[in-house]
Amino acid sequence: MAFDWRNYRCDAAYDELFAVSGAPRPAARSLVEYLQSLSPRDLADRRLAADLAIKVMGITFTVYSEGKNVDRAWPFDIIPRVIPKKEWETTEKGLKQRVDALNHFIQDVYGKQQIVKDGIFPAEILAESVNFRKQCVGVKPKHGIWAHICGSDLVRDGDGTLYVLEDNLRVPSGVSYMLENRGVIKRIWPELFQTTNILPVDDYAAQLYDTLVAISPRPGDAPNVVLLTPGIYNSAYFEHAYLAQQMGVELVEGSDLTVGDDDCVYMRTIDGPKRVDVIYRRIDDLFLDPDVFNPDSILGCKGLMRAWIAGKVGLANAPGAGVADDKVVYAYVPQMIKYYLGEDAILPNVPSYLCFDKKQRDYVIANLDKLVVKPANESGGYGMMIGPRVSKEEHAKFKALIEGNPRNYMAQPTLSLSTAPTICDDEIEPRHLDLRPFILSRGESTYVTTGGLTRVALVKGSLIVNSSQGGGSKDTWIVDIDDDAPGVVTSPAAAAQAQSQSQKGTL
């Protein structure tokens, strides 16, 4: 096969690379022209190189829905997604604004609950939240930050508008795949990085480390930071090991930690106990501390909550941050931004219907065949219903679920998610996708990844992009098109020459 864009049809949805069929968007023009210049042999070689790189680098992910819980190679498409820098600058501001408001909200609901008293946020939603932790009431983490790491999912509708679909504030995952995607794509398209202004993503590990160090109870040159994992059977274990290695911190399990009578956390080492200052925990609240939450948990560490409340250890994300990681709470983020920051939301929410409200619930039940219905606290695409794609029996099932627990369900219109060219078998076809940027909050500053993890629905017509449901991924390029015109690459020969010229200036 070769890249023959004349047969690529993208008229059914907004396409990330093409304005209309055959006409690439300005930021993607050099990429499209370069890909078109490749021979079938060139393309086959690059695809093989990508597959080998993923195997050699050990990039894996476990798909629970397959029922085998076996790691498989990370599914990756070699055609990047391209976003112009100017658009991204606005997106970045909107994400910072959003996470700032969410942290204000979490601090408020574990404090005075002023937003409830002022009638902005319904008391019944908070009262029935399964992620509200009464053990956190009255606690104020360092800098007032609860969600140090956030992954917000963005989708683009048919008119090109970028919407926030949901916010992940408990243990958001995927950033390692964003970084590894860039590593693979640099191996197979190195010439494009010589000639196109693609903004880098490789400072994330350093930014994450700085974010964790900022919450150390013992500020100093080298606080002891560890990453707490549930272990090798977790689907994101690859990411846990990768981030620990990239930051140069210890990867620990609950059995590696103890809490002393002085309320400090210690890590077992061959040289004896070593105090831990900050824990980047990748396990859910309910498994953190069997003394406080699930008494049967063997994943966490007894006394951990006592140490955190005493201010002897920093936890990221803070326990209880998940109260804002709720698809019903999500619907109120624009009001939170107005209430806490006095600003209008820069990034819009997808219009939402909340089933706890009778009028909205009646509308949802009457239009189940047109809406996407989601449970408030599931993730990974589990438990949702895409109304237009399922049977009447499934509609009836969800009607009963909604009526049985209306607080737990919300619904949104079925968006026409944007597409991008994706290699499927030996054809290039449009596939729907989303984007998960990662935001790091450390009080005095907020960092947003340059782009994020683009997830792709590999099944034709499917809107399910979640990796947990068998979705694939792409590298995401934020391209500064103001400056790349002189370096546009139009053929492999031109790219090789440009690369050769650039190397003359290096040692």
What features would you describe in this structure?
This protein is of the alpha+beta class. 29% of the residues lie in helices and 21% in strands. The chain is built from 14 helices and 24 strands. It has helices at residues 29-36, 40-56, 85-109, 114-117, 123-127, 175-188, 190-195, 204-213, 237-247, 304-309, 333-341, 358-366, 392-404, 492-503; strands spanning 18-20, 23-24, 60-62, 71-73, 76-84, 149-156, 162-168, 225-228, 250-252, 257-259, 265-267, 274-276, 278-281, 314-316, 353-354, 371-375, 385-386, 409-413, 419-424, 427-436, 438-441, 446-448, 453-456, 472-479. Strands 5-24-23-20-19 form a five-stranded mixed sheet. Strand 19 (419-424) and strand 20 form a beta hairpin. The longest helix has 25 residues, at 85-109. The chain is globular and about 70 Å long. It starts with 17 loop residues before the first strand and ends with a helix.
